[in-house]
Write a structure and sequence with these properties.
Helix 8 packs across helix 9. The chain is globular. It has two domains: 237 residues, no CATH class; 150 residues, Nutrient germinant receptor protein C, domain 3 (GMP Synthetase, Chain A, domain 3, 2-Layer Sandwich). A hairpin with a 6-residue loop joins strand 1 and strand 2. By secondary structure, it is α/β, with parallel strands linked by helices.
């Protein structure tokens, strides 16, 4: 009897294993249409939104697709819908393959719709869709999102997922755009004390834009010509309580990224006014942030005091004034110039966040929490209002690790 029971258990075990190793529910890659970019616009129909899907063809560029495939690498479809979750089913009325958000890389919202107070109500649906990962990025486009995807035709990267991956990764590393993941968006909303930055982009270049410094542009203001794509990623959109309220330039965005220790910015190139030049020339420098900022606060009294120390390592790359940096006196002058320049930019920006934005666009409030024994004390302090009247001091601890190659002044003409 025991022998029969043992045999039955073994047979049952093998039966279960066979069921578990079945491939009855498998799905082939070519059976799906992967949405790489999702666009959201305000609809003319009340209660609806205009949804745009940028779909990637998984076979193009792959071994299965072959090198001579005539299929398009992407497909774009736009229609009105109640929300972008059920829109997948609606989209399948014109798209032959099963639409999936599993590889969604970027959500582009038009600036017009981002200013709408009803935007956040629709956007919360993201948390209800299990296919959308929170490491997906949020971007704000100057034009309608439907127009943005159509006009954005990269020259080098035909595969849309690669294009957005490269543009976003490099933009964050350079500091020109914020690390605006959906996780950061909803985490900021949950805290309710800070503002949020979303990357700013456009495929419509301004006519005859003003020439500025290398990082003072907004998307669309860079007069780039040649065989390049129309889209530009630079600057950021400021959100307060889930609604867009303003914008920051590339320079201002970069300064916020330096202040925010949670970003991945480590190595950036900037231009700094040359203290030895009478013609207001600028020298190029590489800024490296290898340590976290030091933040101290005195939150007692009617006017809180915030002290921020930013440790930076600097490499001087160019020397337009041809000054001799081997002299200690010149080294001290340029060191003070770099520190004063960065301090002025940051203090001006933080003052703008106090008076115009009524909030800081990075989690500075997290530093304030440790000064309170209980959550109730922190809430009573009211960080949102207290920050607006705080006295903020920024100090830049500059360490120049390389003054560049020594150059000789060219001889005067006719000498």
């Amino acid at each position: 009897m025991k022998k029969t029971e043992a045999v039955c258990r073994i047979l049952l075990f093998f039966l279960i294993v066979c069921l578990l190793t079945g491939c009855w529910d498998r799905q082939e890659i070519e059976d799906k249409a992967y949405v790489i970019g999702l666009g959201l616009d305000r609809s003319k129909i009340e209660g609806k939104i205009k949804v745009t899907m940028l779909l990637a063809n998984a076979e193009v560029g792959s071994i299965q697709g072959g090198g001579g495939s005539t299929e398009k690498p992407r497909e774009i479809v736009t229609f009105d819908a109640n929300d972008f979750i059920a829109a997948k089913a609606t989209g399948n009325s014109v798209i032959s393959r099963d639409i999936s958000y599993e590889l969604l890389k970027i959500i582009v919202v038009s600036e017009e719709y981002a200013h709408d107070k009803d935007f956040i109500k629709k956007f919360y649906d993201i948390l209800k869709d299990k296919d959308i990962r929170l490491d997906c990025y949020l971007a704000i486009s100057k034009e309608k999102a439907s127009e943005y995807f159509i006009r954005n035709r990269p020259k080098m990267e035909t595969r849309p997922h690669k294009y957005f991956q490269f543009m976003i990764d490099h933009g964050i590393e350079n500091g020109f755009i914020p690390d605006s993941t959906l996780f950061r968006f909803f985490k900021t909303l949950e805290r309710g004390t800070d503002n949020y930055l979303a990357m700013y982009t456009t495929a419509n270049k301004e006519k005859n834009p003003e020439v500025r410094s290398e990082d003072e542009y907004m998307a669309g203001q860079l007069n780039a010509t040649g065989e390049v794509g129309a889209a530009q990623f630079i600057g950021s959109a400021v959100f307060k309580n889930g609604v867009m309220i303003d914008k920051l330039t590339g320079q201002e965005t970069r300064n916020i990224n330096i202040l925010d220790d949670s970003t991945s910015i480590q190595d950036i190139l900037v231009d700094i006014p040359d203290p030895f030049s009478e013609d207001k020339l600028q020298f190029a420098a590489r800024i490296m942030k290898t340590e976290n900022n030091k933040v101290k606060m005195d939150l007692k009294g009617q006017r809180p005091k915030i002290f921020i120390t930013i440790p930076l390592k600097i490499e001087i790359i160019s020397n337009p004034s041809m000054v001799n940096y081997t002299e200690k006196k010149n080294q001290q002058i340029v060191k003070k110039q770099i520190a004063a320049h960065i301090e002025t930019l940051n203090e001006k920006l933080l003052k703008k966040t106090q008076t115009k934005f009524k909030g800081v666009p990075y989690p500075l409030s997290m530093y304030a929490r440790k000064y309170f024994g209980t959550i109730q004390e922190y809430k009573k302090f009211n960080w949102g209002k207290s920050y607006q009247k705080a006295d903020i001091h920024v100090k830049v601890d500059v360490k120049i690790i390389d003054y560049g190659k020594r150059t000789k002044k060219p001889p005067r003409v006719g000498a």
